[in-house]
Amino acid sequence: MSARPRLTAQQRRARLGVRHLLLPGGKGAAVEQVAHALVGLHATDPATVYLAACARLAAPGVAEVERGLYDDLTLTRMLCMRRTMFVVPAELAPVVNASTARRVAAKERAHHAQLLLRAGGFTPEWIAATEEAALAALRVRGQATTAELAADVPALCERIVVSPGKPYESTQRVASRIMGVLAAEGRVRRGRPLGGWTSNQFRWSAAPPLAELPEAAAKADLARRYLASFGPATVDDLKWWTGWTLTDTRKAVAATGAVAVDLDEGTGYLLPEDTEPVPEPQPWAALLPALDPTAMGWRHRDWYADPDVRRPLFDRYGNIGPTVWWNGRVIGGWAQRRDGSLGYRLLTDAGRQARAAVDGEVERLAGWLGASRVTPSFRTPLERELAG
User: Which UniProt keywords apply (predicted)?
Assistant: First the structure.
């Protein structure tokens, strides 16, 4: 009986550089190509979508990302894997919805309905009527902010006290809860920001319904796409990335026909057509943003980020900050200073060639950022220190 193939960490790093469009001569021509290469772009922090895409675009720029998000609508923002915001290719949205987002949305609806009932006595019937009124007002306006919709639908102006008696007690408008659930269910979508591209203020618009797909088939499809982009990966990696149960993850991997391979972390999986070694790519460096999909792509990270290097790059909740990469490894972190300039620190000695390549990436990033200011929503120890 033949031995199972073994993939070294070096071979995994080579695949990462090529497939995540990080090589100097292997970047994407369009934002849709980038989104497909990574399955989706993390979007909890609005700036991450732009920074992650532009790190992989041959001609980086805000306008290219906005074209896909707001003009051509070829990208869709969804609350999905791990109850996290992602921007995914529009044609992949039904798969993501059926495999993960649909269940997330159901939990969001149940949670918010219970919160509204407990905090203000708002019944499911009241919630349904308010939602329908908000959607009707949105259809009339075409696009609207939450405040504009509240002007049309007085019920949205109702307020509730969240976490009463706690140190973090707060008063919130019902509107944020109502619109959040409608967005999670894909009935409304976020439009262009009111301010610059880093702004959290935006308009809503109605969203067309997504095609309904069987959940098991959608899970298998998403698992195949993940393995094509992030493989080899363990079952534990995919379970963490999706938020699925262990049973569902195992079934999805089996449905892809994936081939088992030996990794330093244990058993990994590759698609059957993807078992040949990848040639060693040209040297490459990258500055990736906080919550970048590459950095957040696996649960087991030792093969691309040494534990000692990781410590100052993560916050206490497990969110990774801006990172500096060299040939498939995290070697440091970066930040934008108060004056707009960029600074970085290498946490391991990668040599003169690496430093020169990183300097080139700093210049590239500064070139398209221009006068824009970017502060991660989740701040990490090194990012805070470098930012000043």
Answer: DNA-binding
